[in-house]
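Justification of resources, computational component.

The compute hours requested in this renewal are based largely on the per-chain cost of generating structure records like the one below. Each record pairs the submitted sequence with a full structure-token output. That output is archived, and it is also reused by downstream analysis tasks.
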Amino acid sequence: MDKLIIKGGKKLSGEVTVFGSKNVALKVLVAACLTEEEVVVNNIPLISDFITMLEIIKELGGEATLRDHSVTIKMKKIGNEKISLDKAAEIRTSYMFLAPLLARTKMAIIPNPGGCRIGARPIDRVIDGLKRMGVVINYESEDGYFHAVCNDGLKAVSYNFSKNTHTGTETMILAAVLAKGETVLTNAAEEPEVDELINFLNKMGAKIKRIEPRTIVINGVDKLHGTSFEIGADRNEIVTFAVAAIITEGDILIKNIKKNGLAEFLNKLDQIGAGYEEKANGVRFYYKQSLRPTNVTTCFYPGFMTDWQGPWAVLMTKAHGQSVIHEAVYENRFSYVSELNKMGARIKLFNPVIKNAEDFYNFNINDDKKGYFHAAEIFGPAKLHNAIVEVYDLRAGATLVLAALAARGESVIFGIEHLDRGYEKFEERLRGLGASIKRINETL
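The structure output for this chain reads:
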């Protein structure tokens, strides 16, 4: 069992490099399985989720060769249409293999996916879309698998998503690229990571266009070919290091990035009085004055990203006044709040009164439960202090690390395997910025 020990109170400064986007890298691996030719992907993040996806590819009969931050994938022939329960339990994107399996073998047996427990996160919108494409799909509770077949192949379809779904949009795109005819997806996700996947598929010979912000048209092709591709910077890593600079009253240059895809975050930095500056070799983030409070409601792109709300919450413990974060994407994403309160934060969870909650919230309202809270009231400034805390999901892990960096004294963080799912060499890069942080391995 690994843990992190952090001595807080040090101002972080210097330069840091972020790795390729996790949310692109995992989907590109699935897309690579749509062709029998070789695909090379560069600037990948060496995180545990990525390794799990490589293991699934090998389990399905593919080849995967990893060299530094580059991977070569070749799925000459799919030799197995079934993903094991243990692999699927580790990672949510495992269900996206439905697309290449159905496209190439007309059959897929996929377990209910795992990943961070931040709500029900059902895949019903994907299942509904695939059924419209001619797939017969049933969930067997006895074995925990979705059994899917499309004996006549995948069919082009016009499909409107009832609510925004990032991975749902991507899965439908992956299914449509080899389907005969024209598929039109409306109310499709706009995230930059979706467009990056589209660019990758088009390099493989797909014919995909975003004709309106939320409308994507896919004209099916007979086959895709190999290509090489470089993944762009991870927006979540950028925000994490930006908050690390500001909350420790430091000054960090994140190298080789632009402000693209960060508008809502940067707008909020303007509101609270934090500093940032785009330079020729990256973007600089720094503390320049006492922070003002602000209110945030998470939303799908181009709104304030749900993955940013934890780091933003801990930053608001430093602001002078009362801030509110309203989580509208997932129904249960405040697991870190009790841990922050252990560290001296003053955060109160509550449920705002919302008219037409079904329309307002992006999660399925039927998945909401008594005891779930959708908003946090944060009172600052709080004097954070050391504590022993537990991580319950990936972004909550980054949140607690940020709190420990800003806190007085020595904190211990357990459950850091969640961090390893999304951050490569996190503690090493923080040490390079002046943090006092070390990983301890305690074998049972």
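Residues 115-120 have pLDDT under 50 and may be disordered. The CA atoms of residues 46 and 245 lie 24 Å apart.
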